[in-house]
Design a protein that fits this description.
about 230 residues, mainly alpha, 6 helices, about 55% helix
């Protein structure tokens, strides 16, 4: 069976299993300021991007030769798969989410970082906004995945898609880190994270995931329209 809902659900969403090494020694060389902020900061933080230029960026060896093309493909892939991920998530949550999607999955009440750039914005501004957006999404996807591993442990396709989307998002963050450092000597960005679902009821966990993924579908489409022209070959 693809999705089974309604199983026993522990209230604490931290499941036993492999732990991610969050020590600075485990981070890729040259990207510590960005990745450390992403991995180690847990409390919700609101604020504008903190742009700091200086000696903190490593040499250009951080970037692969095809980093711009790779970034473009990652954004296009996330945009192409977002709606299917949301639809599968709905299917796996069961009722009333399938029949009352507009009511229960309205993203108006969930925090999401402001995304005010457009195609005419400066490229540096676009890159910073993208980094803040995908750092938020990476944390949110991790939260949703942990909840679904508890709520729907047999939903293999959903869990696989969540893991794959998170993996792509992490790769995108790494590439944005590279581009910001290489092109603009920006090595710190103040990011914001949403509310944790830890300790919430089963229904609230499902609803929060539903709201975040619906907003993700909307925002990733906008992000693709804005970012892809900036990454297109000359």
């Amino acid at each position: 069976m693809l999705c089974i809902a309604g199983g026993a659900v522990p209230m604490d969403h931290h499941r036993p299993g492999p732990r991610r090494d969050l020590s600075l020694a485990s981070l890729p060389a040259g990207v510590v300021p960005f990745v450390a902020l992403l991995l180690l900061q847990r409390r919700p933080v609101a604020g504008r991007a903190l742009l700091v230029s200086g000696p903190g960026c490593p040499g250009h060896g951080l970037c692969r030769s095809n980093v711009q093309e790779q970034t473009r493909k990652q954004v296009a892939l996330l945009n192409a798969t977002a709606q299917d991920l949301f639809s599968l998530y709905l299917k796996c949550q069961g009722e009333p989410f399938s029949s009352e999607t507009d009511k229960l999955c309205n993203p108006g009440s969930v925090f999401f970082p402001a995304f005010r750039v457009n195609r005419t914005s400066e490229r540096k501004e676009v890159m910073v906004a993208m980094y803040k957006l995908f750092a938020f999404l990476n944390a949110s996807l991790g939260n949703i995945t942990r909840d679904q591993e508890e709520l729907n442990p047999t939903a293999k396709e959903l869990l696989e898609r969540l893991h794959n989307t998170t993996k792509t998002t992490r790769g995108l963050i790494s590439n944005l880190t590279c581009l910001l450092c290489k092109n603009y000597n920006v090595f710190q960005v103040d990011v914001s994270y949403g509310e944790s679902s830890k300790g919430k009821s089963t229904f609230k966990k499902k609803q929060q995931g539903c709201q975040v993924l619906r907003k993700y579908v909307q925002v990733i489409a906008q992000a693709a329209r804005v970012l892809l022209p900036h990454l297109s070959p000359p």
